[in-house]
Task: structure prediction
Amino acid sequence: MTSPRLPPLLDSELPEALRPVLAAWPYRLHRTLAHSPETLLKWMPWAEHILLSNRLPAREREILILRVAWNARCAYEWGMHAMVARRVGMTEADIAAVVEGPACPHWSPAEAALLRAADELMATNRVSDPTWAVLAAQHPPAALVDLLWLAGQFVTIAWLLNGLAIAPEAGLDPLPAEPPAEAG
Result:
């Protein structure tokens, strides 16, 4: 990891309007985005809504976010959401299986479709009809819309984290190594 491209702002450097935001979200991501205070203030209500008021069940939300983080090779996002995933009841086996992807036998068909949706969106900017059919059989329309917003939000966050070279928070899981290629 290269050194951060912008330093996270210290408390003494924060504009007054950002102090409540950074009290609730005291992370390097938010302290770095504080270099653009107006944008951070406008983005935070949206970010909180997409993360905390999403219609997907928490487990499914974290499966999707972790797969986006894995595909984007975003160590910060991976570490933060591996921690959140454990808090919502995901196991170590669940988290490890995110790396293996939708073909891993660990997943139910519905969970595999979430992983496939993340892969397809990041590779082609679309969700295939077969993947959509599985998702649509499991979720009401509002949750399907939230699923797409969630994936897009966390791709954007991964770009910010990777583009600004923001170091992961201390004590979080590192981004796993690539799984070994299958012998062919």
User: Anything to note?
Assistant: DSSP finds nine helices and no strands in the chain. The mean pLDDT is 96. The longest helix spans residues 141-163. The domain at 56-163 is CATH 1.20.1290.10 (AhpD-like).
